[in-house]
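This part of the workshop introduces the protein records we will be handling. An example says more than a description, so a record of this kind follows:
>
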Amino acid sequence: MKFKFFIVLLTISISAEAQILNAESLRRVTDTSGWSGSLSANFALKRNVNDFVILGSDIHIQYKMNKHLVLFKNDLKFQKIEGNKFENSGITHFRHNYRFHRRIAWEVFLQGQYNKVNLIDFRGLIGTGPRFKLTTSEKYKFYLGTLIMYEQEEVTDGITPLQRDFRGSTYLSFSLYPTDNITLVSTTYYQPQLDKFNDYRISSQSSLLVTLFKNFAVNTTYTFIFDAFPAVGIPKSQYDFSTGLTYSFD
């Protein structure tokens, strides 16, 4: 059994609560079968128009065996603004990959989430579809996924009714390794409602990881999210920028 833990020691952030989980961020590159995973905790103070206190925890576990890969993630965040009560958000995600071809895998996933800041009382997803490996080089890797998913969403804006619909979820992901100590990973999702294509979501996340010395690296991530029909009073576009010092060990 092998576990890998990542502890964020320093975090400077301008944040928005993500509504689309970047599943590519869950995958741990390993050539061996068995368990691996990560555990992180973070704390941030911000001041702009208001004072913010943000607490967060993130647990990720994966199991790899032959052609199978199972992923589990649980992510919680608590945000307090100007002395008001904490508003929390969370995502629980389960995904199974079966690689039936050296460049094609089939994915099945379940996800539940809530986000009090964005007025999402509950969003449940279940989906499936193929994932294609577009390249064979170890210096750069490109993946394309084309999934279909069923979504149920309840929001607390007092206007939007309970929503049940089918969405597509197409993503393009790439990982670049220009040197031994630099890694660039980027993923973009496009998720339209299948019977109403003007109702769509876009999410793009890019991360740059620079290794300083053994077990220590600087990790910088930028995330952009666009939702054509968010809850009433919530902006259509949101973004998140964070940079920190990461320590990893086996």
About this structure: The chain has one domain: 5-249. The radius of gyration is 18 Å.
